[in-house]
Amino acid sequence: MMNIQKRLKQLSFASMAGMFLILVMGALVTKTESGRGCGDDWPLCNGKFVPAYTIESFIEYSHRFVVGVVGLILLATTILVFLYSKRKDAKWYVGGAMLFTVLQAILGAMAVVWPQSSAVLALHFGFSLLSFAFTLLLYLVFTRFGEAMNQGGRTRLSAGIRWAVWGVLIYSYVVVYLGAFVRHTEAVGGCIGWPLCNGEVIPEMVGGTTVVFIHRVAAALLGLSILALFLFIRTQASPGSAVYRAALYSLVLVILQILSGGFVTLAIGYDIYLVASLLHAVLVSCLFGVLCYLGITSLYTAEQSKLQAYAAPRLP
């Protein structure tokens, strides 16, 4: 049994690391405009199993190859989890990861064969992000963080804060989608300069400027929301609890995320732009993963509160 548990932990880690790599490579495909590097063919590349070497075809086909390998690893993980794991939450997480991995693969194939709108293409990153989040939660189940997650960090959060956690989590996904939408349009240079947009606090809302400015405002509101959430959580959770640490990490990551957004804008037109864009994608993936952990942990604080209330002595 110990060998099985060790194998489950190893496979879940491989799935999580693979999904993270898929996210980064997907961002690389978008930023280098390599999505059409294999033409309209799928799963072949320009009609060949091993395509002729071009930068675009290499990037696109490498991305497809990694998705295939990680998909097989996740499939093996799914089978072992359902056969040998007694954790119901692990089965939910691996099932969610498999579902969104299949969806993002289908959407990716459709984008190659049939040209899609920017709104649909942005969903591809969104599905990949959900797959990563589920594999992250799955891996944490088999670590000490999983035990802390189950216990809710032995913290009692009010219902209002628990609702706020999930509200911020859902809103963060909306902000991520807006960012992915910006990447898939010609709006990237809509706002020149940072933190001002085209030298103005509120720029003229035309074309790509509108899209980028809305994303900036949404990102700023997300930062303020996470700051407020952390300040509320620290009034009810001890510094050593899982909830407190997750809220603190979320605050640090959202600050870094906002700064990296500024870095992306200032790097437009320079060789470092690609690095800045990939850093932005990495940070948003980490932020969303930590927020998901915070959301799940907050659910267990609700169960902890119910148990403590039930165990409390009742006055006659």
TrEMBL record:
GO terms for cellular component: membrane. Pathway: Porphyrin-containing compound metabolism. GO terms for molecular function: metal ion binding; oxidoreductase activity. It is found in: Membrane. GO terms for biological process: heme A biosynthetic process. Its main location: membrane. The chain crosses the membrane at residues 12-30, 65-85, 92-114, 120-142, 163-182, 213-234, 246-268, 274-296. It is a multi-pass membrane protein. InterPro entries: COX15/CtaA_fam, COX15/CtaA_HemeA_synthase. It holds the Pfam family COX15-CtaA. Keywords: Cell membrane, Disulfide bond, Heme biosynthesis, Iron, Membrane, Metal-binding, Oxidoreductase, Transmembrane, Transmembrane helix. PANTHER family: HEME A SYNTHASE. This is Cytochrome caa3 oxidase. It comes from Paenibacillus mucilaginosus 3016. The lineage of its organism: Bacteria, Bacillati, Bacillota, Bacilli, Bacillales.
